[in-house]
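Hey team,

Sharing the CoB--CoM heterodisulfide reductase iron-sulfur subunit B family protein run so nobody has to redo it. Sequence (302 residues) first:
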Amino acid sequence: MVSQTLKYAYFPGCVAQGACGELHQSTVALTKALGIELIELKKAACCGSGTFKEDSQLLEDTVNARNIALAEELNLPLLTHCSTCQGVIGHVDERLKESQQTNPDYVEQVNGLLQKEGCLPYRGKTQVKHLLYALVSDYGLEEIQKRVTRKLTGLKCAAFYGCYLLRAQKSIPDDPFRPEAMENVFRSLDATPVYYRGRTQCCGWPLSSYATTQSFKMAGMHIQEALANGADCMVTPCPLCHLNLDSRQPEVEKVIGQKLGLPVLHLPQLIALAVGVSPKALGLDRHIVSTQPVLDKLAAVV
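Structure output:
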């Protein structure tokens, strides 16, 4: 599918440059290994994680219209690797594109605010894509498969899609209730997909600041289900999900009264492992739950 070098305006987001620094690290390593060029949008602002609209929809739209305009200036698609960023920015893009036809005065209002700050206007001339769908739709699973040097044979992977990636936008290249994109990626790496009820449900992160126990019970339920279905690891396309499922897994264990110990990988980490990138270069040593069981299992089949 790849006939020329793919190039994207890269929106790393906040969490991947802070609490989940290994996500940024592994995204850069993976795209370099695949020959994909990323131009980081260093002037981009936080998408707001869905909180800006609690104060003002106009605020959320204006901040993210500016982010999209930065990609438009480069004449490139905007690439995210966070489901929350994708959900927020992608939904703003859909809403503004629709408004260009149905309510152009609103788009003018947004652009007027941008102009006051010396920012470029939103034109609605690009796309907002998550890394998962860029790899599946633009790069192609067959091309990824050609670059696999370390087959993940025998590794049982449980996808955790979460909420935002599947249902925040009106149209995604997948079924929002019965998705297969991540499972198809696993198959292309010779890994085995694990299906379980919670893979498309909320991880509990949005509740964690005010209903911590309920949040941890939700995360624990998903991890328990994945383990019960034979998973060796969980794989997520969202760093916020990763925080609740990996970073807080020891706290989750205390709440539910059960030892879990399920490694949780970022999607680019898993793919990059299969195309030969070293675990150290992917930040696999940064996780709270040790990823060594995954590496041990792969060593047994390499």
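The two ends are 28 Å apart (CA to CA).

Ping me if you want the raw files.
A.
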